[in-house]
Amino acid sequence: MNDLAPLLTPEGRALLDEVRDTDPAHELAVATRLRRDHPAELVSAALGQARLRQRAVAKFGAEDAARMFFTPNGVEQSTRRSVAAYRAERLRAAGVRSVADLCCGIGGDAIALARAGIRVLAVDRDPQTAAAARANAEALGLANLIEVREADVTEVDTSGYDAVFVDPARRSSKRGRIFDPEAYSPPLSWAVSTALAASRAAALKIAPGIPHEAVPAEAEAEWISDGGDVKEAVLWFGTAPGTIRATLLPGPHTLVSRGLPDPEVRPVGRYLYEPDGAVVRSHLVAEVAETLDGGLIDPTIAYVTTDTLTPTPYATAYEITDRLPFNLKKLKALLREREVGVLTVKKRGSAVEPEELRRKALPKPHGTASVTVFLTRVAGAPTMLLGHPVR
Q1: Digit-coded pLDDT (tens) for 224-250
Q2: Alpha-carbon distance 50 to 18, whole Å?
Q3: What region does 238 belong to: left with phi over 0, alpha with psi -120 to 50, or beta?
Q4: How far apart are CA 234 and CA 254, in angstroms?
Q5: Whole-angstrom Cα distance, residue 311 to residue 317?
Q6: How many CB atoms lie within 10 A of CB 355?
Q7: Which of 181, 234, 316, 335 has the fewest CB atoms within 10 Å around its CB?
Q8: What is the pLDDT of residues 112-140, one digit of tens each?
């Protein structure tokens, strides 16, 4: 797994095709059989790559994942294809025709940029990662648009490119996930200075948990979710400084801050809206509440309530049937009475773990009915709200 070169040979490629759909449970038997005709190291590398390709389907789709080459970190840290394509389209629409992709990883973003017709210099200092990026550009027929360079990104001259894209490392082998932007590799301050020097535009991919006060005044900040899961935040330069937005994929659906004050708190109504995570991270719950003519159930909780149903892509609506003080015995009795067999537990503002409550409240399914329980606070009091999503 530390050297892709053997897998790029005709023998390696043929072996990759042969083990493509290997069930992990059958790997030992497959490996034993293949080692009769192939070097053991090559067989192990091919099977390892097959596992990575199977994991990568969720991010890259089956067709691309079956042709690409991955490292374990590359699968874990690469951008989902839909998000990379959205970001590439924003750059293309801004008139960008060339991008220096710094900290390119296995090339996921470079691929999206090239498919948008943008010429890319993809840079990574890790030899195996750069090799994977180069192999992927070739495998997907994009080598004419993607130049891969193994180098320290802080030493690369980006002056010949319209834009820069920086995806600094936010994980450490020793410390795991890194939360301090100045502990990124390279640090956020370096990435910002590089972005400000770009001739047309720049985009910095950062962790979605970044504090709003850490966003530079010169940047636009965008939080992106895909299928309801928050994937990243992006700092844009050369676009709309000071703008805050949330973008939901597929769509895209984009909500822009209007600087609204916090919504009023009101009693729980017939409907409860759960804003998308990108809306919550971007502090745009007030914008959603205004479109719904709704209010909050508690000043510290990002749930919006109304008495009328208004469709919106920015929040999931639930019809509330019961409001109870938090009480496990009462909840168990209610679930039994209503013959509930499927229990979904959501929480905001509660210390109770959803899985623990699910196990205790519904140790045995009592029927086929389904219920969603919200563990939250209403006007400061621990509360259970029961309901179901509006289809």
Answers
A1: 999 999 999 999 999 999 999 999 999
A2: 10
A3: left
A4: 14
A5: 8
A6: 9
A7: 316
A8: 999 999 999 999 999 999 999 999 999 99
